[in-house]
Amino acid sequence: MATEDPSAEAPSHEPPSSKAPDTRAPSRRALIGWGGAGLALGAAAAGGAAAVARTGDDGGSPGAGAAVAFHGAHQAGIATPVQDRLHFAAFDVETDDRAEFVAMLKDWTAAARRMTAGQAVGDGAYGGLPEAPPDDTGEALGLRPSRLTLTVGFGPSLFDRFGLAGRRPEALVDLPQFAGDNLDRARSGGDLCVQACADDPQVAVHAIRNLARIGFGKVSVRWSQLGFGKTSSTTPEAQTPRNLMGFKDGTRNIAGTETARLKRFVWVGAKDVDANSAWMSGGSYLVARRIRMHIEPWDRTSLQEQEDIFGRDKGEGAPVGKAKERDEPFLKAMLPDAHVRLAHPDSNDGATLLRRGYSFTDGTDGLGRLDAGLFFLAYQRDVRTGFIPVQRNLAADALNEYIQHVGSAVFAVPPGVRDADDWWGRALFSPSTTEG
Amino acid sequence: MRPLRRPFRLSVVTAATTVAALTALTGCTEKSGAGADGAIAVTATDTKCEVSKKEFPAGHVELDIENKGSKVTEVYLLFPDDRVVTERENIGPGTKQKVTAEVKEGDYRIACKPGMKGDGIRQDVTATGSGKIAKRDPRLDKAVASYRKYAQEQADATIPLVKVFAEAVKDGDIAAARKAYAPSRIGWERTEPVAESFGDIDPKVDVRADGLEEGQDPEKDWTGWHRLERSLWQDGKLTARDSELADQLVTDLEDWQKRVGKAEITPTSMANGAKELLDEVATGKVTGEEERYSHTDLVDFKANVEGAEESYALLKSVAAENDPELTKELDQQFAALNTLLDKYRADKTGYDFVSYDKVGKAERKELSDAVNALAEPLSQLAAAVVK
C-alpha cells in the first residue's frame, strides 16, 4: 500500500538524474509523435525543473510538502492520509480507438508518476522551442509535491466501449434512484474519473489540467469539482474535521493503518472476482455524490435541532449522552431519524465505508444562496453492500430536510500501478482474462 | 475577435527569427550599392515588365519606373515569399516614378501590375553581397507565398460582398442586410490572424461592444460589423448613422485589402495563426458571444476552421516529414470537426448554418470538445515546421 513514509517512496522516486528512461516524459509532443528527438531535448529541461521541486523533500519529515509514493499494490488517494484539497474530474471517452485510449492511459500514468513526485510533465514548462507551447502548464513550478495523489476510476459506461462489456465487474452496479435525489446529468456519471488530492490546491488543479490537456481528442471533461477542507480523516490521531454544517462527522472512519478493516470493507479481494473481473483485485469502488446543503435554512435552525439531527453535540462531537467524540455511541439514545444513528454500521448490518469527502463552495446560485455542500467520496469493497444499503437507510434521515443530492457517479478503481512498466488499467486492457 | 482587444497578435507581428535574415534593412541610408547611377530601370507596359539588370549589390536600391503602357500600373519589389519590400501604386500611363529600398543580399522579384490587378508580371532579381543568408526551405517560402495569395484573395473577395451588405443597409432593407451580413464576414474570418496583425483595422471593423475601450461611447465610437449586427437584429431598424457605418466598413475593409500584401507572414506565424483561429472559435464562437444578436456564429466558426485548414494544408508537406504522427492526428481532427459542423447545415457547400441560439448546451459542449481536440495538436504545428 502506498504510504507517506519517506523511506517507502525511495524505490519509486529516485532523483531525476538517475531516472530510467521509461519513468520520464509523458511528453505531449511525444504523444503525438515527436519521437526520439523530443526525448533527448527534454532530458535537460525536465531534470532542471524537477530538481527545483524535489530538493529537500526526500529526506525531510513527511509533512505537508512531501511526496506520496505513486507505485504500490493499491492506488494512493484511498487509504493514504487525506489531504486538504481536492480537484475531482469525470471524463467522457471521445475516441473509439482502443489503442489510442490505451496510449492515453499510459501517458496519463507517466504524467501522474512525475507530477506526484513534484516534477513537471514531459519536457517541462520552459526551455523548449519558443514557437511551441510547453508540455507542462507551469503553475506548479517551484511548489513541493504537496502529497499529491492521483487516483483513477472507470465508470460503468466505459464498459460499453472497446469490447469491455464482458469485463465489467458485477459489483460495479448502476446506482439506483434514491429518495430525494435531484441529480443533474451534467454533474453525474462519466466513463472515467481522476481524483486529485493535495495539500496545495494549485498542485491538485495543475494535475487535472495537465491530464485533461493530454487527453484532448481522446477524452473530454464531463464535469469536475473542487473541494477544500477534508470532511473525514483516514488518520485517527488527527482531529475529525468539520463539515460546512459545523459538525464532526465520520469519527469512526477507517484509518489507513487498519489493515483488517481495509481488507474487509475497502479492498476488492481475490475471492470477490472471477476471471473477467480479476483485474479489479486490489482495487476498490468509489461513489461520488455532490450533496448540496441548504446552508441558510440550516443556519436558522436551533442548536438543539441541529444536534438532534446529527445525534452529536456541536462542540465536542460527542454522541448523544456521551462526553467525548470517540465514546461509543448509544444509538437508541438518539432520535430515530438522527443522521449518525441511521448511518452507523450497526443500523446497516455492519456496512462500512471509507469516506474521503470534501466541502465545496462554488460561489452563489443566482438566488443569493451559497452554492455549497459536501462532495462525498466513499470507497468500498462492493457498492451493493456499501453505499447502497446505507444510502437507502438514510431515506428517513432528518438531515434530508437540509441537503439534496445533486450529482452522482460510481467508478471501479483498479489496483495500484506497481512499477515503472505498469500503467493505469493495464490488467483491464490486457488480452488475458486472468489477472495480470 | 477577442472579448478584450489586444494591440497585436504576437505570433504574426513579431516575426520569428527565421524572417529576420530576410527582412529589409531600415535606417541605413549611406550604404554603397546601386546608387543613383546604378538605378534599376523598370519599364512597364500592359504586357511586359522589363528590368535593366537582374543582379545588383545589396544595400540602397533605386527603381526608376516608367509606365509606357495604357493602363495605370503598380510596381512591387517582393521577397521570395511574396512579402512586399516596397511598392508604388497608381503609376499613370506615360508617367515616371522613383522607388527606393534598403535590401539585404538575397533573391527578390520585381512585379508590375498593369491595371493594378492580379499577381503581376514578374522578374526574378538578386541582390548580391559578401555575407551568407540562412536559406529557408524553399517549400516554406512557397507555402508563405501561397498563403499570402490566399489572404489577398480572401480580402479581394470580401469587398464585393461587404458592398452588397452596405448597400442593403443604406437602402434600409433589413431583410437583405441580414442575409448579406454573415457572408460578408467569411473572408475576414478565414484570415483573421493576418487581418489582426494590422492592429488598427480590427478594432474598426470587428470589435464587439465589450471590446470597446474605457471612455469609448458605444453610440459614437463603435463601428464595424457588430454595431450593424446590433441595429439589424436587436434594434430592428436602420438609421442614417447605420448608413455612415456601412460606408465606413467598406472603407476600412478596402484599407485591409490594400495592406494584406504587406503583412509579415512566416511559416511559424502561419502555423500559430491556424491555432489562433481555433482559439477564436474556442473563446468567441463556441460560446455564442461573437454573434450575440444574429446568432450566425457557426458561419464564422466554419470560416475560422477553413482558414486554419488552408494554413495547415500549405505547411503539411514539411510538417509531415518532421512529424508524421502529428499530421495524421491533425488530418483526423480536422475531418472530425468538419463532420460535426456539417450536422448544422443542410447543404455541405453552403453557409446556411443553424442559428446558434438553437444549438443546445450539450451540442455546444460537443463542438467545444472537438475544437480542443484539434487545437491542442495544432499548437504543435509550428514546432513541427521549424524543426
From TrEMBL, chain A:
Domain Dyp-type peroxidase N-terminal: 75-228
EC main group: oxidoreductase
The record's free-text note on cofactor binding: Binds 1 heme b (iron(II)-protoporphyrin IX) group non-covalently per subunit.
GO biological process, one term: iron import into cell
Record's keyword annotation contains Amino-acid biosynthesis: no
Domain Dyp-type peroxidase C-terminal per the UniProt entry, residue ranges: 240-417
A Pfam short name: Dyp_perox_N
GO MF term (any one): heme binding
PANTHER family associated with the record: DEFERROCHELATASE, DEFERROCHELATASE/PEROXIDASE
Protein task: Involved in the recovery of exogenous heme iron. Extracts iron from heme while preserving the protoporphyrin ring intact.
Family designation: Belongs to the DyP-type peroxidase family.
Protein name as annotated: Deferrochelatase
Record lineage: Bacteria, Bacillati, Actinomycetota, Actinomycetes, Kitasatosporales
From TrEMBL, chain B:
Protein name according to UniProt: Peptidase M75 family protein
Chief site of localization: periplasm
Localization annotation: Periplasm
PROSITE patterns: PROKAR_LIPOPROTEIN
The organism's taxonomic lineage, starting at the top: Bacteria, Bacillati, Actinomycetota, Actinomycetes, Kitasatosporales
Record flagged with keyword Signal: yes
Keywords: Signal
Imelysin-like domain residues: 143-381
Signal peptide: 1-21
One term under GO cellular component: periplasmic space
Cited Gene3D superfamilies: M75 peptidase, HXXE motif
